[in-house]
Design brief:
This protein is of the alpha/beta class. The chain has a domain at 8-189 and 214-245 and 307-326: Rossmann fold (3-Layer(aba) Sandwich). 38% of the residues lie in helices and 15% in strands. It has helices spanning 16-27, 43-47, 63-66, 87-108, 156-172, 196-203, 221-234, 250-261, 272-289, 297-301, 312-318, 325-333, and strands at residues 8-11, 33-36, 52-54, 72-75, 112-116, 125-126, 178-184, 186-188, 209-210, 215-220, 240-243, 246-249, 267-268, 305-306. The strands form 4 sheets. Strands 3-2-1-4-5-7-11 form a 7-stranded parallel sheet, sandwiched between helices. The longest helix has 22 residues, at 87-108. It is globular, with a radius of gyration of 20 Å.
Length: 346
């Protein structure tokens, strides 16, 4: 599918990924339509003279007008947060709004719907039980074929994103608009201030930093955005594609950042039981204060998993490639993250 003459709607266009997609499409001579909210920061969108459509995806009545005369929808809008409270709002934004939007695209005759999900909606590798699949020491990675194994954890973000995939798949099976899903890992992007070095130096100035041996995966936003566009153009209907970068341990990541900053952190390995007790105490305090529940036992449970992923399918079918994490970190911490909507390439 060529996108040159298509009317492309990007939901969540004022977000980091949404603006990076706009940047990539604009480089290719394509002017997408930007979905925004009343309170969205539209400076970058307005600087390109793009059409804007204002809608609250939580209000179903506003969606039909949003997708009117649209050929392709790239759905990036989501609430990305690992807090445990306000579960209903996660469901409303990440699951219900996504399914309502997809239903509206079918009624409007939209050709293709690209849903941006997350690797956490697929699975993670339990550090004890999954090692038997590849033998001790084997570099096991999650693929698109893994079965979801995180549903027992009360983490609203993960649950709501997985539920969205299930619901969208059910609707897509009835025919009509083609559904393609991409599952990025942790997306590395510059902060709004653009001074990520100062933020990192402040973090490394703490008394200590926790030392974890879990594997995690990070991917550069400059690699994710082009891959999403490729998925719109050439992804197979009904398929999902992992967009992942390098698999590293948290310790390796910390030491890599340390070498770039020239500042050695004091690493301390905290036992799981200590973190679990601390999380329970944190929940008690948050409940008493009626505040945000951001540190809780189910979040600590994630330390029992490795978050390593394979992008072989996306490499084969979408031509996906990722730059080295070292390159990404050097650009980020050197405040030289060019090739983005914040710092375009010359």
């Amino acid at each position: 599918m060529s996108l040159l003459k298509k009317r492309i709607l990007i939901t969540g266009a004022s977000g980091s990924l949404g603006k990076q997609l706009i940047y990539e499409l604009h480089r290719r001579g394509i002017k997408p339509i930007a979905h925004v909210r009343e309170t969205s920061d539209c400076k970058y969108i307005d600087s390109l003279g793009l059409e804007k459509r204002v809608a609250d995806l939580r209000i179903p009545e506003q969606i039909p007008e949003l997708v009117k005369n649209i050929d392709v929808v790239i759905h990036t809008a989501a609430w990305v947060n690992f807090r445990q409270d306000r579960s209903d709002e996660f469901t409303e934004i990440n699951t219900t709004a996504a399914s309502n939007l997809f239903l509206a695209t079918q009624k409007a005759g939209v050709k293709r719907f690209l849903h941006v999900s997350t690797v956490a909606a697929i699975a993670a590798l339990h550090r004890k039980s999954d090692i038997i699949n590849g033998g001790v020491g084997a570099p096991i990675k999650v693929t698109e074929k893994n079965k979801f194994n995180l549903g027992h954890l009360h983490i609203p973000y993960i649950r709501s994103k997985h539920a969205a995939e299930v619901e969208l798949g059910r609707i897509a099976a009835e025919g009509g608009t083609e559904l393609v899903i991409v599952n990025p890992s942790i997306i590395v992007a510059p902060s709004r201030t653009g001074d990520d070095r100062s933020k990192a130096l402040k973090a490394f100035s703490r008394w200590f930093m926790p030392d974890f041996t879990n594997r995690v995966n990070l991917v550069d936003i400059r690699d994710v955005a082009p891959a999403i566009i490729n998925a719109v153009e050439g992804g197979r209907p009904g398929e999902r594609y992992i967009l992942a970068g390098d698999n590293v341990t948290v310790r390796e990541l910390t030491l890599a950042v340390s070498s770039i900053l020239g500042k050695m952190p004091h690493l301390i390995r905290l036992p799981w039981w200590f973190l679990n007790i601390a999380a329970r105490f944190s929940v008690m305090l948050s409940t008493l204060r009626r505040g945000k529940v951001s540190f809780y036992p189910d979040l600590v449970e994630l330390l029992k998993y490795d978050w390593s992923y394979s992008s072989m399918k996306a490499r084969r079918e979408l031509g996906f490639s990722n730059r080295s994490l070292v390159v990404t970190l050097n650009d980020l911490l050197g405040n030289s993250f060019t090739g983005t909507y914040m710092k375009p390439e010359n």
